[in-house]
Design goal:
Blueprint (H helix, E strand, L loop, with lengths): L2 H11 L5 H8 L7 H20 L4 H10 L7 H21 L3 H25 L2 H19 L5 H29 L7 H21 L3 H23 L5 H5 L1
Helix pairs in contact: 3-6, 3-9, 4-6, 5-6, 5-8, 6-7, 8-10, 9-10
Length: 243
C-alpha cells in the first residue's frame, strides 16, 4: 500500500480507532489491548447507530402516510419523546461530546417531528401540523444556538429520564386502552430498542455522564415494554377493535 493510500486508510480508520489504537493494531499487532477494544467497539457501535438512525422511523412515517392515518399513535407520547431527544441533542452538542456518541439524536429528532406532524395532519388539521413544525424549529434554535445556559440544559437532561419513561408509558397505556398498537411500526420499535441498549455502552465509554447513561437505561426499559405489547397484540384486528 503506497503512502497516499495508507493516509486515506488511516483517516477513514480514525472514525473507529484512536491514533494510539490504530498504531497498536496496525503497527504493533497488539490485538489484546482491552481499553482499545472497548474504545473501538464503542465508536463502531456509535457509527452503526447513527447509520441506523437515518431510517429508524421511516417505516413508521411510511405506514402513517400509506394508511392516511395516525390512529393509535399518542401525540403526547410523540411530543414527549421528541422533547427528550432534543434535550439530549442540545446538551451533548453544547457539552462537546463526540458526534458518534449522540449524532443519531439529530436524525431521530427530524423523523420524530415528521411523525408528530403527520399524526396531527391526519387526525386533526393541517394548521396544527404546520404550527407543530414551526414551533419545534423555534425550540431547536433556542436550545442549540447558545441562548440556553449549560446549567439549564443539564437540569433538563436530568429531567429527561422522567420524560422518556412517561412518554413511552403514555404510548403503552394508549395501546392497552385500545387493545392494539395501531399504526406503530414493528421495525421502528425493534430498532429503537436495539439502539437504546447499544447507547448504554457507548455512553459509558464516550461520555461517562451518569445522567446520560441512566436516560438510556430508562429508554431501553420503556422500549422493551412497547416491544412486548407489539408481540402481545400482534394478531389483533385493528378495524375490528375500533368497531
Amino acid at each position: 500500500m503506497n503512502s497516499t493510500a495508507f493516509e486515506y486508510f488511516r483517516t477513514a480508520a480514525s472514525l473507529v480507532f484512536t491514533p494510539q489504537c490504530f498504531d497498536n493494531y496496525f503497527f504493533d499487532f497488539n490485538y489484546l489491548d482491552v481499553p482499545c477494544f472497548k474504545s473501538s467497539l464503542s465508536k463502531a457501535l456509535g457509527l452503526l447507530i447513527i447509520l441506523g438512525s437515518l431510517t429508524v422511523r421511516v417505516p413508521q412515517i411510511v405506514k402513517i402516510y400509506n394508511n392516511q392515518s395516525g390512529k393509535g399513535i399518542n401525540i403526547v407520547a410523540v411530543t414527549l419523546d421528541l422533547s427528550a431527544i432534543t434535550i439530549y441533542m442540545a446538551y451533548s452538542f453544547i457539552k462537546g461530546f463526540p458526534f458518534s456518541a449522540w449524532g443519531d439524536a439529530t436524525f431521530l429528532a427530524v423523523q420524530t417531528v415528521i411523525v408528530g406532524a403527520l399524526v396531527l395532519y391526519y387526525e386533526s388539521s393541517q394548521t396544527k401540523a404546520i404550527s407543530y413544525l414551526l414551533g419545534y424549529l423555534v425550540v431547536c434554535y433556542v436550545m442549540l444556538s447558545g441562548l440556553t445556559p449549560l446549567n439549564v440544559l443539564w437540569s433538563l437532561q436530568t429531567f429527561n429520564i422522567l420524560l422518556v419513561i412517561f412518554g413511552k408509558l403514555t404510548q403503552a397505556w394508549t395501546n392497552y386502552n385500545n387493545g392494539h398498537t395501531g399504526q406503530l411500526s414493528a421495525i421502528t420499535l425493534f430498532m429503537l430498542l436495539g439502539g437504546s441498549v447499544a447507547r448504554i455502552f457507548t455512553s459509558m465509554q464516550e461520555t461517562g455522564d451518569n445522567v446520560v447513561i441512566m436516560t438510556y437505561i430508562s429508554s431501553a426499559s420503556a422500549n422493551f415494554v412497547l416491544v412486548l405489547q407489539l408481540w402481545w397484540y400482534w394478531n389483533v384486528d385493528i378495524k375490528e377493535k375500533s368497531e
